[in-house]
TrEMBL record:
Origin species: Pseudonocardia hydrocarbonoxydans
Pfam family, one: FMN_dh
Cofactor: FMN
Top-level division of the source organism's lineage: Bacteria
Protein name from the UniProt record: Alpha-hydroxy-acid oxidizing enzyme
């Protein structure tokens, strides 16, 4: 028989611990987020549908994005036990400079549309946590203003080559003058991808106040207030911004980009040169032969060619082909710190994230970006401890494999 009794008040006291009251709304929202998926859900509630879909969506049937995520889902780790993992070193040399975490903030366009704090907030977080930040040609804050907002951050500039090469040359010079140490040339965008969510939502640059967006805006008044009471939302490096993103790409960027342009940039740019959008071993060899310091295996987050190669699956063969001459980076589909650990174990020097920090930005501005990094960093440390690995540099292909489909 179970003997029952009334608990003493002293026994109840330790159990009666109400959660602390968080008076700040942003703090309350972010306190509920334990994963990037949680930040995504908050972001979806906080922003108009067209804005969220611009960030969340991909091209055509979104197969490239889904396959990239599926590849990370198929990762299987091979842990070792009885190792001292009381301390874990998450630092990593990226193009000769130590970063405190093995990832960087990748370039994202129109960042102030997601949250009015925009690129300045992201760069400030990069400075605080000690990782690189790449500013996009399609950014909404100038090269100089980002440098002023985060003077101690390691800053990279992502370049699309314009039909008018003089404009590109000017951007490159401004980046050099402002202390950006790495130039990242994107080569997978001869034309804009078919981003159907944007088409269905009628998204234009800047956002148009149609009946549909007005109704949606009524459900997100804070977003519209921030939009209308801060600097006009425009691309900082583009003079003409009317129309959809795809129309801007097709009107401004050069579909005649060739290896000659890579050679030109290598001879012009004094810092490190990265080629973003590599999707084959042969192309990796070509750009490394031309002097690239790193290649970023990327299908543009699934936003360009649908049914493109899966970047994670390209890491081992590209590392075998060029890894002794250039660094190999990877992006697309990264939503968990374990994804970053897997990418490094397969041989990547670093990973780049985009949507993961943008969900944080939409959920809570700069503090949301900080929360995204906190989540990813915690997941990286925990994953490595459970794998029996004490530092990022110890990760090897023997620690990881991709399970077969089916």
């Amino acid at each position: 028989m179970v003997q029952r009794r009334l608990p003493r008040p002293s026994e109840l006291a330790p159990l009666l611990r109400p959660a602390p009251i968080r008076w700040n709304g942003t703090d309350r929202r972010l306190a509920k987020a334990a994963s990037i998926a949680d930040l995504r859900r908050i972001a979806r509630r906080r922003t108009p549908r067209a804005v969220f879909d611009y960030t969340d969506g991909a091209a055509d049937g979104e197969l490239s994005l889904n396959r990239a995520r599926d590849a990370f889902n198929r990762v299987e780790f091979s842990p070792t036990v009885l190792r001292d993992v009381s301390e874990v070193d998450t630092g990593r040399d990226i193009l000769g400079v130590r970063a405190n975490l093995p990832f960087a903030f990748g370039p994202t366009g129109f960042t102030r549309m997601m949250n009015h704090e925009g690129e300045r907030a992201v760069a400030a977080v990069a400075e605080r946590v000690g990782i690189p930040y790449a500013l996009s040609t399609m950014g909404t804050t100038t090269i100089e203003d980002v440098a002023a907002a985060a003077p101690g951050a390691r800053r990279w500039f992502q370049l699309y080559l314009w039909r008018d090469r003089s404009v590109a040359k000017d951007l490159v010079q401004r980046a050099a003058d402002s202390g950006y140490d790495t130039l990242m040339l994107t080569v997978d965008t001869p034309v804009g991808g078919a981003r159907l969510r944007d088409v269905h939502n009628g998204l234009t640059i800047p956002p148009a106040l149609s009946l549909k967006t007005f109704v949606d805006g009524a459900m997100h008044p804070h977003w519209w207030v921030n939009l209308l009471t801060t600097d006009p939302l425009t691309f900082a490096s583009l003079e003409s911004t009317d129309g959809t993103v795809a129309e801007l790409i097709n009107r401004v960027f050069d579909p005649a980009l060739t290896m000659d342009d890579v050679d030109w940039l290598r001879g012009t740019w004094p810092g490190k040169l990265v080629i973003k959008g590599i999707q084959s071993v042969d192309d990796a060899r070509r750009v490394v032969d031309a002097g690239a310091d790193a290649v970023l295996l990327s299908n543009h987050g699934g936003r360009q060619l649908d049914r493109a190669p899966v970047p994670l699956e390209l890491v081992p063969p590209v590392v075998d082909a060029v890894g002794d001459r250039a660094e190999v980076w990877v992006d697309t589909g990264i939503t968990h710190g374990a994804d970053i650990v897997a990418a490094i174990a397969f041989g990547a020097r670093a990973a780049l994230i985009g949507r993961a920090y943008l969900y944080g930005l939409m959920a809570g501005g700069q503090r949301g970006v900080e929360k995204a990094v906190e989540i990813l960093a915690g997941e990286i440390v925990r994953t490595m401890q459970l794998m029996g690995v004490g530092s990022v540099d110890e990760l090897r292909p023997s620690h990881v494999r991709l399970r077969s489909i089916g």
